[in-house]
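Lab meeting prep.
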Amino acid sequence: MILDSVQPDGNQSLASLSREEIREKFRQCMREADTFIKERKFEQAKSKLAEASRFDPTNPYLTAFRERIQLYERNPELLSTRKSTIVAKPSLKPTQTKEVSKTTEELPSYSPTMVENKIRDQIDVEYKMKFTEELKRAELQASEKIKNFDKKGRDRLHTLAEQFQSRYNQQIAAERQKAQRDAEAALEEERINLKKQHDQLIKEQNENIKKIRAELRKEIEQNFLKRFEQVSRQYDLKMELLQVKIPQTREEALELYREKLRKSYSNGEPTVEGAKQLMELKELLEITFDEHFSLEAQVRLDNYVATVQKKILTGEISLLKSEKLEALKQQFQITPEEESQIQSYIKSNIEKSKLKGRILVVDDDKALLDVLEVALNSSGYDVVKSLDVQGAYQLLKTTAVDLILCDIKFPEGELDGFKLFTTIQEEPLLRKIPFIFMSALIDGLIMRSGVQLGIDDYLTKPVDIDFLLAVIEGKIKRYRSLD
């Protein structure tokens, strides 16, 4: 929990700081510590963590960062591979490695298979190097044996020549021609026999080389399968962290991280183990600290609002009794600034739940606003009105509604209804509210644009009141069931 006042050691400098200033100083220390870790400056990182603990000594991220530093100090080689992307689980046989590498080279730079390509390329290079080394060794051995055999053959030929020469000298007087013919015939026969023996030895050596190659290939394939299993286990771990779905865009990565934060912060702040997992996921998705703190603030506010509304509706707490509300604020670390932003919205939301429904109608035609107000009031709905989109947006900040009924074109000549819709979609507390356009414009392009933006319905003027009431009732029922 972030310190509210002076530290136990008597440090008076924190007493003059607001909770938000202390939180920002803590975040700055964590950013700098994260940077030092990536630069292998572990002592500076530890110093920054010690400084951060002055502002929030119980924050679970401190433990997560200290364990990261210990891990990198023991295994510095991990730091060069920490910034990784997600790899798809390989499923190809070793004989298909070349085809896979050709395919992966065509993927775009942001593809999550970049690490897979790198790993497979490394395996392929190691495979080729080892295979080439063993092949050269086998060829050298075979060449040495062939040289030895050739030498023995030459020695044997030399010996035979000397024998035949001796016989020739002994019988030269009487059988010169016969001895010469016999010698030549014998030499020719011996040459043929030697050639046959030479060919047989070459064949045997080739068979041995093939056998050695097969054994080497089998050994390399076994090593490859072991590496494949390791990669598969790493892939399964990452899939578990990502909860199976692999984000393909930056928006999907941020949304996935937001969902993980929402679960981890369901009780106000994460556990130490939850903080470790968040840090792992943050690095895996390459989420910056600024993005982390922004998403964390949104999640805390959303969870706080939902918890307060639930406990008020169930009677566990009351807006008149602030003790339990203060406990919830402490639990979700709500600052006074954040409280002032959402207090009026919570009260309005509680009041809204007691009605059949509250509808915001936005149109520059005052007469039409009055007609719609009478019709909706008579059907049991509360109505708030606005003549322009700016006023409507301000109303939404303090008033909870179940449905927005808005015109498209206003006197300024611009399609301000579209602007209001896109602005609301950027607000976590407002973007789920059903939004219906109504307009006298029957332009097909405008209608398609509204549908592409994600509006819930489109009604043309003049509006049929009975049809409008039926649409409103259905949308509000669905909205409240989802809410």
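Slide two material, second protein:
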Amino acid sequence: MSDDEVAGHGGAGNAQGREARRHPTMEDVAAAAGVSRALVSLVFRDQPNVSAERRARVLKAAAALGYRPNAMARSLASRRTRTVGAIIDDLRNPFFAEVVGGIEEFASELGYRLLLAAGGRSGQRERSALEALLEYRVDGIILVSPRVPINEIVAAGDQLPLVMVSQALRGLDAVITDDRGGVEQVIDHLVALGHRDIVHIDGGPAPGGRQRAAAFRRGMKRRGLKSEIIPGDFVEEAGVRGARELIDRGGELPTAVFAANDLVAVGVLGVFAQEGVSVPGQVSIVGYDNVSIARLEHVSLTTIDQPRVAMGREALGLLLSRINGRQEPVTVTLAPELVVRSTTAPPRG
């Protein structure tokens, strides 16, 4: 066989391979089902004016051919992708996973897809994620505890529907919980047990951190009690540092520690266990969020429950109503609830 024959044979093979790999089209489905292309289009746009028998024929033919509707073409025609984006602050924090669980659950029920990005506790990474989602032309974006500057959030909100979770900004939709009410429940619980010396390890500058610290300061002052706040963050390491600071001072420990979230509380519990500090015998500990780790039997943390799944579902509901034309901004405020477990008790003596 000559070189030309080899080349010709290979070319034919390549052409056949390309033909074999060609994705089936709507026309192919129409031919296989014995209907018009227009009817196939009606079926895949889920229009009601198609008989059950012809709809079944089209779907059977599409399944046999391996046909999948072109999502890009549909989005260009409708100017909708039926895809929403969500950006969370920290993948390691179960709070965010449970909020996203609510978003994804509701999106799936409604036939929407979710693109998820994590900011890695970095404003710069969140900015990149936001730009990427804008480039993907999602129908809207949910920002959960964002760290990007407010002016950039507002600018993004001018381009497409946007909902905030755990932080409210004027002119934008938001889902928040009543942090002041949650902190009041913590203080009420500890004071009712007899605690007066209560230290708060705060959440730093992240959304929720300042609010809870301010609520703690006001709540303690109103009850005539001294408020001590140790700077922290919403991570376990902040609880470790705060607990070490309390121990390294020497002298009497506070009778109670209120942690900015459950991860911080777990950090405190770990250090106290290492140092032989009895919880709740010597020190009571309260967290915030009621994430999965707080509910573990060997942790059994008294905490404030934020309705995380409900927050995600509410956020998507707000986003879709905005996508569908609502103009006025809405803020949904959900009520937190104290959950008493094994880490709080009356102080000794």
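Talking points for slide two:
The first strand starts at residue 83 and ends at 88.
Residues 180 and 239 are 21 Å apart (CA to CA).
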